[in-house]
């Protein structure tokens, strides 16, 4: 048999090699096409938050300029559904146009992807709609106009702080954010409970507004805080909670942080209490009082303000925080939930009654003036607060201010004399 010269390939081997090359090139070509398709699909999916942002921006413009929206005029704190429907249709048109130009936006979308991911974390909570009254100066009395100007300044001050200083370092669940928010469906109202800032009487008002009682004066303190009739926002599912945050009027009442703290201490530790003494009092006395008596350790009674402050400032607390002295910035998340009305305890009755008029509450309903617990005690004023602050060192007073620093800045309270 004649042998092939060394170094030459047999024709059959050459055909096999060429065939393998064709297969390799085909796989490479189709793989590249598939990779490009997957990249395109990924960019299209990444674009969706931008479409939502464009829609939200259009909604904001229509809300601020109701003359561009068809249908009814806006009323005081209108839920936004009339204007929202028109804005949503406009947003859909923009969304369809945006999807047609995906390829041209791809590079920009890649650059903004990280920003969009952070934005999506709070998309359910950040409200770009800013309800405001449509009443003119001629329709408002001098008293009402002055209160409204104060209220607008409070909102602008808070918004400015949140824009400049607030950083959401941790992703927090919607349920955790709204655990203090109560829902009153008749008047489409969301109220964030801040203990020691008139919350007991505000719960009475909510019960009257919802039809559970005819007068706030007929509701006992125990019933206010033990009744399960008032519904919290965290009892709704995620979709429903988001709709309520978007459509209902949100109200928050705050108080000077030091006054609120001293008021909580006086209420919980200077009077008999079958919860705070055995739960918090025992733990505080055990860690912060040297040579505590057996009676004190058994009952938890007699905690001093200086001992309470040491517990509050301790990074390794023997027992956790409580809503009565937790920071308002953590209780109600005012930089994530866009509150429509911010009232203050220092002008509680005036602010509350003005707000009740805005939401269309029954004409005869007025915010209660009575103090239903420890009614014979002097109210916690700045003078009373100073009597407690002198019991701790200047360094502790400064630490205490630092502890509530966010509340001072958010709600524009003056720094106390330390």
Fold blueprint:
Elements (H helix, E strand, L loop, with lengths): L10 H36 L1 H17 L16 H20 L1 H10 L1 H9 L20 H24 L8 H4 L3 E4 L4 E4 L6 H11 L11 H6 L4 E2 L5 H10 L1 E6 L2 H13 L6 H13 L5 H6 L5 H9 L14 H4 L9 E4 L3 H11 L23 H8 L4 H10 L1 H6 L8
Parallel strand pairs: 2-4, 4-5
Antiparallel strand pairs: 1-2, 1-3
Major sheet size, sense and barrel closure: 5 strands, mixed
Radius of gyration: 31 Å
How many DSSP H or I helices?
Answer: 19
Mean pLDDT: 77
Approximate strand percentage: under 5%
Number of strands: 5
Notes on the structure:
There is one protein chain. The protein is mainly α. It has a five-stranded mixed sheet with strand order 3-1-2-4-5. The longest helix is centred in the N-terminal third of the chain and has 36 residues. Strand 1 and strand 2 form a beta hairpin. The chain is built from 19 helices and five strands.
